[in-house]
Amino acid sequence: MNQSDRPDRDAYLEEIEEGLRSMIRWSRRHSSQLAHDLYQGLDLTALTILAALADHPGSRLTSLAESLKLDLPNASRQTSLLEAAKLVEKATDPNDRRSTLLSISPQGQKVLDQARHDSTDFMHRIYQDWDTSELAHFATMITRTIEAIDSVKGPLADHRS
Question: DSSP letters of 77-111?
Fold first, then answer.
């Protein structure tokens, strides 16, 4: 980076940081209502579990919790609620009769499909005035941002000036 670019970069980074903060505040304020409206009354964790089981049927609870970065008691509670709602099915692992395998049920798949449809519809409404090239650029930038965040070990790790 050229040092003469630093003031411009700092200004853009401040604008990005404020934008991300605003999105997080908005999300926190509206997440319960959004989850209820868009995700068929499920909270985001429950929907995330359904999506993971749709992609990886026959998962063990421990593997599911680990892959979704959930603590085991929370994952257990959520899957029990999903099972009670008949959105998740349990089966005994044929290779280890002491273990249980989780899969999304046909009803769970219907709920997940509808939630995805509703979420996509919501996104269409948000970005209705954006042209396709703007969407493509934004999608690329979001992906790059997530990859950059994932590559940093901690918010201030070894970078204090």
Answer: HHHHHHHHTTSEEEEEETTEEEEEEEEE-HHHHHH
CB within 8 A of 89, min separation 6: which ones? 83, 102, 103, 104, 105
Please answer whether residues 108 and 88 qualify as being in contact, where contact means their C-beta atoms are separated by less than 8 angstroms: yes
Please write the tens of the pLDDT for every residue from 53-79. Answer: 999 999 999 999 999 999 999 999 999
3-class DSSP state of 60: coil
- CA triplet 117, 29, 118: central angle to 5 degrees? 5
Q: What are 151's two structure tokens?
A: 């590559």
Locate the DSSP E strands across the chain: 88-93, 96-104
59 beta partners: 102
pTM of this structure: 0.74
